Amino acid sequence: HFGEGSKNELPVHTVTLDSFSMDTTEVTNRQYRLFMEQTGYRKPKHWNNSNYNQPNQPVVGVDWGDAMAYAEWAGKRLPTEAEWEYAARGGLEGKRYPWGDEPATVERANYGTNVGKTTLVGSYPANGYGLYDMAGNVWEHCQDWYDAGYYSKSPAKNPPGPDTGSNRMLRGGSWRFGTSELRVASRDNGPSGRDYNGFRCVSEAITIIDESEAST
């Protein structure tokens, strides 16, 4: 894991993204149970642990493949790292956390073993885009392979992440980790399937046309 100002966060750069829509919360045990019931998919690690298995807690113990399988079933996908960070910032530019530069507190996020387990999704204030737990609770799987030096060579539009790697990208910090990992710029990777790994999904933005107006 990397501390504040790690070289893997440099150089600071600007990217352009196509429109997308992101889940308001991390995928919950209730949602994941429906996926398992309809597909026969295996139970994740910690499924029977009462610290983590309440219906509205985020599902944990899922690896990248599990998250991908759920996303495909749901008609969605995992976010790219760039999409995740854009969403986490909630419309704020150059700020340390999803809420701004103010210090992290136990009223703002679940981190640093202050609670000792995951909390129900939506237990803390949303960011400027109405997204919950973009800092803390569980590390969130992204679509990308991890590469510490990717920012020096990533494309300026819709960066997809490296072509290969050994671990997938994790973002957002978790209930077990400290304030440095809560920062929206923090990049990490590591073993999947832990009790602090979860995910949320994105989908392509859909333009809805009001047919009653279109026909007039």
Tell me what you see in this structure.
This protein is of the alpha+beta class. The protein is 16% helix and 10% strand. It contains 4 helices and 6 strands, in the order βαααβββββα. The protein has helices at 29-39, 64-73, 81-89, 211-214; strands at residues 20-22, 139-145, 168-171, 188-189, 197-198, 202-204. The strands form 2 sheets. A 4-stranded mixed beta sheet has the order 4-3-2-5. Strands 1-6 form a two-stranded antiparallel sheet. The longest helix has 11 residues, at 29-39. The chain is globular, with a radius of gyration of 17 Å. The mean pLDDT is 91.
Percent of sequence in beta strands: 5-15%
- The strand order across the widest sheet is 4-3-2-5
H/E element sequence: EHHHEEEEEH
Number of helices: 4
* Secondary-structure class: alpha+beta
Give the termini distance in whole angstroms: 58 Å
Radius of gyration of CA atoms, rounded to a whole number:
17 Å
What's the total count of β strands? 6
The helicity comes to 10-25%
Roughly what is the average pLDDT, rounded to an integer?
91
Unreliable runs, pLDDT <50, ≥5 residues? Answer: none
Outline the biggest β-sheet. 4 strands, mixed
Q: What is the 3D form?
A: globular
